[in-house]
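The records we work with from here on pair a chain with its fold. Each token is a code from a learned vocabulary of local backbone shapes. A record is reproduced here so that you can trace the correspondence yourselves:

_____
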Amino acid sequence: MASEHNNDNSTSYQPSEPRPCTNGCGFFGTAGNRDLCSKCFRDLFLEEQRAASAKVVVEKTLLHGGVASRSSPSSDTTDASVVVTAEPPSSSAAAAAPSGPVKASNRCRGCNKKVGLTGFVCKCGATFCGVHRYPERHDCPFDFKGVGRDAISKANPVVKADKLDKF
């Protein structure tokens, strides 16, 4: 019985015969890579990732654009308004993307020296060298005292007891 099981073709052991890549690139594929060579499998995997990320972005755009319209009672009007409201933000987002998120600079804002990987990012959002990294050295507009006050007030709420009646 054990010998019949070993001779059966349904075992997990794969034959060692090389198979050509299913894309026809001329290299040999493996069963672990869906009978594709390593390069074709990597390209297919990257395409699948891009498609999945594009799908997530579209769903987020539709969800973000349609949040206000989903509160309406009719589902037919909701679907129509989701589609209508989803298109303008994507076109305006494409126009606002270059000016919106600012790429991190690799130069010190104080002396314009190249900092590379050793740059320090301040709470004001600028990158500085080792000399100008301290808030006092670059006249930082960030309100450290205000942030500290807010943190203390959140951590220590006011506890006030009721007054006791004197007898």
